[in-house]
Amino acid sequence: MSVLMQPESPAKAADVQPSGPTESAPEDLASLAGRQGYFSTGPWLSADATEVLIDSASRGSARFGRTAALQRPDIAREFASWGFTNSRGAYTTDSRFFRHAILAARTTARIDGWHLGKRTSLRLWVGNRWTAVVAGSSAGALLLGYESGYRGTMVQLDVAGVDDAASVMAAWTGLAPAWPMAGTAGTINTVNSGLFERRLQDAKVPVPSNADGQLRSLWQEPWFVWVVTVGRERFRRGFINAGAAGHFLFGLNNDGDVQLAPQASSLVWHTLRDAVEDARFHEQQY
Predict the structure, then answer these.
(1) CA angle, residues 205, 207, 208, in degrees to nearest 5
(2) I want to staple 120 with a disulfide (CB 3.0 to 4.6 A). Which of 45, 136, 144, 223 is the partner?
(3) Strand partners, 63
């Protein structure tokens, strides 16, 4: 499936250049980035069981029920193993916090991510006080070769504070400090969409013959590509996490080519935070 968006010109980034003498090599930020991944102690459920739990919360249902347990004993076992239901199929207090955060949400956010053909997602329900989180394999996990469950079939549940929504998204996508390349602030590279699609699937696809130093640096890094949608389709952006090369905003121009613009990590974080806050104060999901 194509992850390319409809025609959109990426905004120019007002990046910050490393300070100090130009001949000095910037500090290696790789170790710092590695400590800023996504971490959670929440329960793991199958995608099917999670959808049942979300649906029950959205409807305000208090029971999974014996009939449902007979029809889906696999889900019944999952719920029972985490103490989410009692012997009568009623949802317990152990699931109440997560279900309340779903029911009280004012808006939602979703991130779809890809790494070399492997797909994952992060879903958020954001309310006045809490953020319910359903997280598939994070960028850091996929880049290390890990998937949650068989082919990413498990997701992890959590509840965070409302002010933590953007931080959860940033951690899950692997947003971390990175030095922008000298002289690239605000520049835009253009890549043939077919070549870009092939690079999404295969890191060995050769760099474009006309690539400048910035594009070559981006091309040679491992990619985690992610598209974030906040609210009722009011906000949508696509980014490439290119490791040491930093983050790049991407979109299709009117000629059908892909445009890539470098983005400072701080700018990406503020973009996520502002999008969530705008949606939260203008929407009432439930």
Answers:
(1) 115
(2) 136
(3) 90
Angle 37-43-47 from CA coordinates, rounded to 5° = 90
DSSP H helices in 110-204: 139-143, 165-173, 193-201
Model confidence at 165: pLDDT above 50:
yes
pLDDT tens-place string over residues 83-140? 999 888 889 988 989 999 999 999 999 999 999 989 999 999 999 999 999 999 999 9
**What are the angstrom distances between the C-alpha of 129 and each of 98, 100, 249?**
12, 11, 30
Question: DSSP 3-state assignment of 193?
Answer: helix
pLDDT at 23: 41
Spatial distance between the Cα atoms of 237 and 255, rounded to a whole number of angstroms:
19
Long-range contacts of 261-264 (CB under 8 A, 24+ apart): 261/10, 261/11, 261/12, 261/13, 261/186, 261/187, 261/188, 261/189, 262/13, 262/15, 262/180, 262/181, 262/184, 262/185, 262/187, 262/214, 263/13, 263/15, 263/239, 264/13, 264/14, 264/15, 264/16, 264/180
What is the pLDDT, as a whole number, of residue 10? 37
Per-state percent for the chain, helix, strand, coil, to nearest 5: 35, 25, 40
User: What distance in Å separates the CA atoms of residue 229 and residue 227, rounded to the nearest whole number?
Assistant: 7
